[in-house]
What does this fold into?
Amino acid sequence: MIKNNSKNTNTVASVDGECVPLFTKDYNVYINHTDAGGIVYHANHLVFFENCRRDWFGKLNLNGYFLQTDDGEIQHFVVSQADLQYKKAILLDEVINVRIDKVELKPASIIFYQSIHRHSPNSLSPDNANSNANASSSLLSSGKIVIACVQNQVKTKPVSNNKADTAVASTTPMRPIRVPKNLRDAIEQAIYEQLNT
It folds into this structure.
């Protein structure tokens, strides 16, 4: 039974108490993801989360990392926080299911709640959901990833009047800016459609 979750509009729906993710994709685990023992490096969990976010943006017909404003400035996203919990090892030659479980839109950032699960033929979906016990036993890692929207302020300037010196980048920091409207609208639309299916 699929029902809307009215407490949190960013969690799309629930199937018998289990949240249905906004997006899921299966990935193969290759030798370059692992150490000599065939276990995925802890940092590569972040790589799988990143790939999943990029693939979701692609599905939404967006390049979510480099967006051009109306006045020609380039906006982009940087990871400002990553909080990961490792549950079980991911092994060489496994197929894993990477999910975007929930998204929170803030004025200048997007918070992704993601998870990696051991692939099973009964992957969580509105049509065929795992039981809560099976879903939790398949959990390999989970994370809260905060992506900040920034405007690059780096400009080049010469270090001295000596022509032999080359231009170097100034240390002017990137400044936070609001999440672009087209990206915000696309994410809100995806959440709305999943809530109403």
